[in-house]
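Help needed: design a sequence for this.
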């Protein structure tokens, strides 16, 4: 069972359930957060509430591909964990031109404490078919396809979604302390198109992740990975996120990438990124350069 959100013909946001057979049922909740709150109040799982809501109803006439999908959840915060796959460690070493026997990325890959950083806030986060922006001060930018965990404020994993953790490799490679600038800017994080309820997932370490990048309608890049390749367990990362920290209902935690285009590739204006995760769907976003606006000598 997946949860989606779409805009109706009246431009109203509508939460809905998407069955594995492709049928769409409207839900009596304004948002996924409202569904989470109801489940907590009634001490039931989200799946049980959804099943109760649709048991005596009929699916809508529109098919999934006819709907204008938007963010399935409005996360107050999006966090990310880095260097959780071996390929990510190798890529970080390459971009930073690490020459020491043991780089900082080698150390964090083996360390007990995971790398965690703030990736985005709700107002910086976009959903399906909305343009992701590339920085005007970077010459080496890529998408980072990642499985996202949808968390309760107690750190429970409520669902799984797809995340695109846009990254400026040259900025981070110049100096690791530039990580926030390499990761956080307007429209630098995309999430969607659905949330797979955790109660319906048999093995969360068997999600197949595929990324495709198109330019002028031609496929430039495609690669796949599996969450079985993760170095760390989800509970391990979540525990560190919640440690001495306030986590909000609906927080999304991206779990790292194992798909990295070659070092001679960078995104360009007009590209289209597709990230597909088995059982969740396809997150598709066009790429756009945001023109900087000069105000009092400062670009923004």
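Sure. Designed sequence:
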């Amino acid at each position: 069972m997946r949860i989606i959100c779409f805009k109706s013909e009246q431009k109203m946001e509508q939460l809905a359930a998407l069955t594995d057979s492709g049928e769409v049922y409207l839900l009596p909740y304004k948002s996924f957060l409202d569904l989470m709150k109801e489940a907590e109040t009634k001490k039931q799982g989200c799946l049980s509430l959804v099943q109760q809501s649709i048991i005596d109803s009929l699916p809508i006439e529109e098919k999934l591909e006819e709907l204008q999908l938007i963010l399935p959840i409005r996360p107050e915060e999006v966090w990310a964990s880095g260097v959780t796959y071996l390929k990510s460690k190798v890529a970080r070493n390459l971009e930073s031109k690490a020459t020491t026997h043991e780089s900082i990325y080698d150390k964090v890959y083996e360390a007990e404490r995971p790398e965690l950083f703030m990736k985005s806030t709700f107002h910086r986060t976009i959903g399906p078919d909305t343009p992701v922006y590339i920085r005007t001060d970077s010459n080496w930018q890529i998408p980072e396809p990642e499985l996202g965990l949808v968390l309760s404020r107690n750190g429970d994993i409520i669902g799984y979604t797809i995340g695109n953790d846009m990254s400026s490799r040259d900025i981070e490679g110049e100096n690791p302390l530039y990580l926030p600038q390499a990761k956080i800017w307007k429209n630098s994080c995309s999430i969607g198109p659905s949330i797979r309820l955790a109660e319906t997932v048999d093995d969360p370490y068997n999600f197949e992740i595929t990324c495709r990048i198109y330019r002028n309608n031609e496929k430039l890049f495609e690669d796949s990975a599996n969450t079985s390749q993760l170095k760390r367990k989800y509970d391990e990362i979540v525990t560190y996120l919640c440690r001495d920290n306030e986590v909000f209902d609906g927080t999304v935690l991206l779990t790292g990438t194992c798909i990295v285009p070659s070092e001679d590739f960078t995104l360009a204006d007009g590209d289209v990124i597709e990230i597909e995760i088995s059982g969740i769907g396809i997150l598709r976003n066009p790429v756009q350069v945001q023109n900087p606006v000069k105000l009092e000598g400062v670009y923004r």
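The first strand starts at residue 2 and ends at 7.
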